[in-house]
Amino acid sequence: MTATTVTFTSTVDGGANSLAVAGIASFGGAVTNMTTLSVSGTSTISANITTTSTQAYTGAVTLGASTTLTTTNSAVTFSSTVNGTTAGMQSLTIAQGSGAVTFSSTVGATVALNSLSVNGSGAITLNGNVTTYTLSATTYTAYTVAANAVGNQAYGGSLGMDFDVISTITISQLGVFDSGSNGLSSPINVRIYNRNTQAVVASLAFAAGQSGTLINGSRFMALATPLTLSAGFQGVIEADGYNASELNGNTISQVTNTGGGAISFVGSSRYGSAGQYPGSLDASVAQYLAGTFQYVVGTSVSTGTGGTQSYSGPVTLAAATTLTTTDSAVTFGSTVDGAQALTVSTGSGAITFTGVVGGTTALGALTLNSTGVTTFSAAVTAASVTTNAGGSTAINGATITTTGAQTYNDAVTLGAGTTLTTTDSAVRAASRSTTCSTTRRPQSISPLTPTRWVPKR
Q1: Nearest 10 degrees: CA dihedral of 114, 24, 103, 80?
Q2: First vs last Cα of the chain: how many Å apart?
Q3: DSSP for 301-316?
Q4: What is the Cα–Cα distance from 335 to 362, expressed in whole angstroms?
Q5: CA 435, CA 433: separation in Å to the nearest integer?
């Protein structure tokens, strides 16, 4: 398929065929029953993609919603950058079985992802920094529907509910009711109107099969640009497109959230023709299960804590790499190799190395910044090892070997008999809090004094 831009607004059933897009691609609905998928230009992915063979994205990838890429023991390759659309709102999960996953550039450098999980057993290659991020400012859902709630009417016109803004809010996502929480069987549109001018100030179109992010009984997608509404704004949240196969709800219980008084739910519910402002008033406030939105109080949705990073398969560093979260864990489930520097910064999040580090190819400088727990469960070989102050390091493997210095600026716990080896370089422990969980005990250590640790009985 060759075109400047190819846009799939709904689901794609590959019919057990391959798809090669020579140009820009946008996937608005789930992709299934495909053998191979390749895109030569940039890709916008807003739904899950499943193939039996490889997936290759040559151009930059932007996630429009949290996304899972699945293959049957086949490779997933990103030849350029991977970013979200709103910082901390989109997660990427890759389930590739024994297939390899290659990131040839940065992940989340421009717009950080919420989290990154590579769940298969296949090899992982990192050739750039990875940044994950999620919101710390409390995110409120204006209208919350219970999970698995089932609709009770097939009205296809517009259904709206009034709200007033008391203190400035920023809306990051719009949502639509998903009857039964089992996926949208029909396209649903959601809009926010200015109640005074009847102008649309934000809108999204959910395709049939659109996964979005299911939260309780509604599906959400991020706005490309968060919408800030100032105090005094009078709005209507509206959705339309429901029918007999995708019901909406009428007078079914839902919970409203004012964000501590930042918004107020007022007046009556509304209805009208599909695609138009709902001008007819109904009986009560928040009567319909239809549109909703998520918001924070204030003007920023980009301050916060970070999402996790998880690498289940063996990792190879193809370039000096920094992995960054804000107070969330980074976990390596297998080996880590590559003659490159690795820096992991997680705030208060834990750092866990489950497999051998540098066993095939010694790492460069290994720098670990966490006020949580850093754990080595197997041998480590690197140019140097440095941990920051404030957390603790658990050494549960037999050896840590470096050509340069080893500096542990936090408390150290030995879970096994341990040998620390350098090539004519210092081993420094800045904390006196060094303990051992076995009957073997280390000698005493003077802070910031070159010391050879020798377990003794």
Answers
A1: -100
A2: 70
A3: S--SPPPPEEE-S-EE
A4: 11
A5: 6
**pLDDT beyond 50 at 399:** yes
Q: Could you tell me how many residues make up the chain?
A: 457
Q: What's the one-letter identity of residue 154?
A: A
Torsion of CA 370, 371, 376, 380, to 10 degrees: 50
* Tokens, residue 97: 């079985």
Q: Candidates 3.30.420, 2.60.120, 1.10.260, 1.25.40; correct CATH number of 140-297?
A: 2.60.120
Which tokens is 421 given? Answer: 């080896």
Coil, helix or strand at residue 32: strand
Among 406, 410, 366, smallest CA distance to 388 is for 410
pLDDT at residue 302, rounded to an integer: 40
Q: Enumerate the domain spans of the chain.
A: 140-297, 329-457
CA distance 289 to 389: 51
Window from 52-66, 87-101, 177-191 with minimum mean pLDDT: 87-101
Look up residue 207 and give its two tokens. Answer: 């395709």
Give the span between the Cα atoms of 415 and 396, in whole angstroms: 4
3-state DSSP assignment of residue 425: coil
Which among 342, 302, 332 has a CA at the least distance from the CA of 108?
A: 302
Structure tokens at 158: 């517009």
